[in-house]
């Protein structure tokens, strides 16, 4: 059964409003179908209508009566500025069409995916369509009063189109058919597990559906992931529509692979690419695989809390101006800790020099679906290529990822060849299905869920403001940490809750043990002075209450934990990257392992990446300096993890 379709009717003339709603209501009552449930909301002023659109995420359609709206716009008092509704103030110098167009723009600024159906004078219909963007369809109002079935049919069909899951529906139907399997995988619908005295517990734990739905790519009707055909192709087209891009692709082995696919599609040997040093290591490896020449942006690091910010806009613009022959700029749109780059500035200056923009937005896949976040969305900013880890913060299985393409010069054929290099010929269908339903949820209720999460975060912050030792770091704190925070218009994702624990007497290991062992809370990330809590689309309110209870116990000292033994911070600066050779040349050269303490003056052949903060300290092709050794010595004293050191050795290029 489809979810209820809630329709908002905007009409300020009471008699007409009653006629319209009564007519539609009669059709609803006359519908003899148990799979259609429709409810109506009524608004007799623009302000009331916009407030409903903002507050009620269950609204799935708006019916807007064009000719009779009274412009009594007193919106600022109850509509947030980020909704864009303030722009809908009446302009007495404008025509009614222009003013009504502003109302529709205000609705769309809150929820771009919400269809708006206009009822108006048929004579003005063409003018209305020409001047008011975002209209789903136009209807003559008197026709609707006499024949409301016509608009209801449109609303139901459009709802079904938005709610469609092309792959998941076909996949589920095929599995239910219970066809006899004479192809891979070898467990044959779970039979080899189910009938075994040794591994049948594996079958019982996961249940029958997991095994019968583990299919072979021999099922032609479901389509090919590498070619994007049939049900898979339709599902990818639906994702592109929801995310407002030219093309979208499913990747079943993580955004690490998505990043490498894009880099190898766009870059050739020796091509310049301006890259954020703080990018995920997959970006660094992708540049190596493409044999490109990176121009690295400096890392901006705060040692007190062990977090890094986006690179400075002055350096981004300066490197673009100095390297106008660069093919690409690669940035992380949202850092692990939720700091956001004003990407529109980057896109504008890069595109002036025909430089493509690729944004790794792994931690911010929901950015388009709420006005409080949309201003920092890579897609909204006009980036050419975007990757989303659909499993990190929205509803998909681990390893499920989206690639989005907005580049008008996109080489689709070469992309498919690179895609084939990296993608398994036996992709997991459950992962593909999870990407399909992930899109469905974002389209149909993404705004509603995010609105509730943001409200819950605001309440949590208000309650935690009463604490004496624990506190949630805010934009004001980030502005103190990073001198370019305000000048660069850096934002922060409030769903990434970074909590300062420096005032507690306990070691971070003890805090982690308390939260996990005694309270049952698994925290995303720790540094020596912070804990990071992610609120995702699965962040139910009851979980927030349990988190608050645990944090309150810590703040009150109502716990029995060991005292902090080491309050030392990380090194204050990360040495800049100075390349002596193309990273790919060093990486693929003959290499040898030597003790890291003795590596000064040698050219690195591999990445050396401390965690935290997860920023490469050394990249292939870089001459190792004494400053790197000092940094590693400081990390060693804190027993932090360093990837790229093997039994005390690092790999360097063999001397000739």
UniProtKB/TrEMBL annotation:
It holds the Pfam family OKR_DC_1_N. Gene3D superfamilies: Orn/Lys/Arg decarboxylase, C-terminal domain, Type I PLP-dependent aspartate aminotransferase-like (Major domain). InterPro entries: OKR_de-COase_N (IPR005308), Orn/Lys/Arg_deCO2ase_major_dom (IPR000310), Orn_Lys_Arg_decarboxylase-I (IPR052357), Prn/Lys/Arg_de-COase_C (IPR008286), Prn/Lys/Arg_de-COase_C_sf (IPR036633), PyrdxlP-dep_Trfase (IPR015424), PyrdxlP-dep_Trfase_major (IPR015421). GO terms for molecular function: transaminase activity. It comes from the Bacteria. Keywords: Aminotransferase, Decarboxylase, Lyase, Pyridoxal phosphate, Transferase. Its cofactor is pyridoxal 5'-phosphate. Residues 387-401 form the Orn/Lys/Arg decarboxylases family 1 pyridoxal-P attachment site domain. Coiled coil: none annotated. The keyword Magnesium does not apply. Belongs to the Orn/Lys/Arg decarboxylase class-I family. This is Aminotransferase class V-fold PLP-dependent enzyme. The lineage of its organism: Bacteria, Pseudomonadati, Pseudomonadota, Gammaproteobacteria, Alteromonadales.
